[in-house]
Amino acid sequence: VHKLNITPIGKIMAKRINRAIELLEQDQTVYYDGGHTGHVLTYEQGLKDAHIWADYINIGMEHGSFDMAGLDQYIQGLIDGGPTKSGHRTPAVIVETPVEGSSEEIIRFNAWQFRMILARGVHGILLCQAETPDAVRAFVESCRYPINMTGVGHGLERGTRGTGSQPTSAPVWGVDADTYVDKAEPWPLNPEGELLLGVKIETVRALSNCELSLAVPGLGFAEWGPGDLHMSFGIKRDPSKPMDPRLLEARDRVKAACDANNLAFLE
C-alpha cells in the first residue's frame, strides 16, 4: 500500500518569494504570460491573475502605458486573490521598462523608472534594447541599494537605489523593511536575492556587444528580440517564410553568451 501525504494548497510553504528564481535554482523551465504592449492593470484583473498558470507575469511598459497607480492596484489584487497554488504570496511580476539600454547616460538619466517600478514591489525588471555593457552595468547598479556590497569592485560599483520605498514594496513581499532591503538584490549575484534582472538583445549593435553585456554581474536572464532584430538588420519579416539565417545566427549567439555566463535564456 502506497500512502500519499498531501498538503492542502493553502498550507504549501514556498521556499522563496520569487517563484521564477525558485524554479531556476532547480534547473526547471520557467513559463510566463503577458504581452509586450501593456497589461490590464486593475485590482479586478489582479484577483483573476492570482492563480494564473504562469510562473511569472510580464508587464509590458516598453510599449504599454507607464501606469504606476494601476500597477499598485493590480499587485494588491494579486495579494488579495492569493496565495498561489505553489504557496507563493503572488506570482512573480516582471516589468519591461520604457527606457532603452543604448548607453550608460540614458540609463542614468532614466533610473527613476526602475526606482518607481521597484517601489511597487515587483520581482524583476527587463531592460529592452540593451546595447552596451556600460548600459547594463548602470541598469544593475540602479536597481540596487548602496548598502548591499556583493560584487562591488568586481565589475560593479555601488548601487544607486534610494531608500524610502520600503513601506510600499516590503508588504507586497510579506516581509519587514529591513528584510526587504536585504532581499531586494539581483539573483544569482546574491544567492539570497529575490530580484530577477534581465536584458533584451534586439539590435545589431546589441548583438555585437552581447558577450560583454551578458557578462555584467547581476543579470539572471537574457532574451533575444527577433522582431526588432529583423528591423535592425533591415529585413522585412515574413511569417510565411523560414527565418533569415542572420536571425538564426543571432539567436544562437545570444544563447551561447547566456550559456557562457550561466544566464537563463528566454525564448
UniProtKB/TrEMBL annotation:
Protein's UniProt keywords contain Metal-binding: yes
InterPro entries, A to Z: Aldolase/citrate-lyase_domain, HpcH-HpaI_aldolase, Pyrv/PenolPyrv_kinase-like_dom, Pyrv_kinase-like_dom_sf
Annotated organism of origin: marine metagenome
One GO CC term, this protein: cytoplasm
HpcH/HpaI aldolase/citrate lyase domain ranges (all copies): 115-265
Alphabetized UniProt keyword annotations: Lyase, Metal-binding
Protein name: HpcH/HpaI aldolase/citrate lyase domain-containing protein
Pfam families: HpcH_HpaI
Homology family: Belongs to the HpcH/HpaI aldolase family.
Molecular function as annotated in GO: aldehyde-lyase activity; metal ion binding
